[in-house]
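Suppose you are handed a protein chain with no further information: no name, no annotation, nothing but its sequence. What can you learn? This example shows the usual starting point.
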Amino acid sequence: MKQYTVAVLGATGAVGQEMMRLLEERNFPISKLVPLASARSAGKTLKFRGEDVTIQLACDEAFEGIDIVLGAAENDIAEKFAPAIVKAGCVFVDNSSAFRLNPDVPLVVPEVNPEDVKWHKGIISNPNCSTIITMVAVNALNSISPIRTMTTSTYQAVSGAGAEGPIELMNEVEALSKGETYIPKVFSHQIAYNLIPQIGGEQFEGYTSEEMKMQNEGRKIMHLPDLKVSCTCVRVPVIRSHSISASCHFDVPVTVEQVREVLAKAPGVKLVDDLANKQYPMPLETSGQDLVFVGRIRPDLTDDCGITLWCCGDQVRKGAALNAIQIAELLVK
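A reasonable first move is to predict its three-dimensional structure. Written in structure tokens, the prediction is:
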């Protein structure tokens, strides 16, 4: 099998580190790994396949001779280096939101629209973490009848805000247990024992940028240009794994039995749906897992053509790093 030279842009961050672990774990056909980061980290080493690999400075020249670049950096970094990556003849699988809605850039969830990889022009975008988890959970239902609208609420773990999110939660819990105060730095309010119903800034009619991703990215991924989504995104005091409540609405009545049968066979899905025995998806169960767990399937009592479900998935793994690796696996096929 052909071997590939792979660079990880943003290799020192949580997603970059997860990408490196998955490249090793999934035995990706890689001849050389090139970790890329800022000048602050360049020259340090990271472990890969039991050996020390030196972090290189992220610069335009660093992409020469690279086959695939896995992006785990912020929008400004992705936008800065994308021209050099494409010029060097690499394929850029980017986890930022910089190119997701660009009509010339595929937005791919391999369990949903793997065929879109074929029309890339040097850049392929990884969707938002909550969008990925939700699309894996609901896409197969389109085989019964196309989804017309969705009403969703996300319950997003603190690690979705970066490595400092869990630290802030732990520090707040410790301070509160001692009767001390703690001034939030990562989140706009105390997250310990609290919920914060805002992720991102206002974008449209009171909806935040994070909430609009579910509709705008979902349309592109599922090839449903008229899909309408009403989404509420909430930060919750959970360390890892995002959870989503989703009510899907169709043109025809859909039964719980139909949904269970379809989801039991859906790629990337694990059906965990036994209310009587208290079996349903939970963040603790899905952390570190590749699959999206789906359960609590029931009729939407407000709509005869609606179905409601609950899903959980590891947002660092499937919601970011794994999805990017799966895209790279499609490329090498």
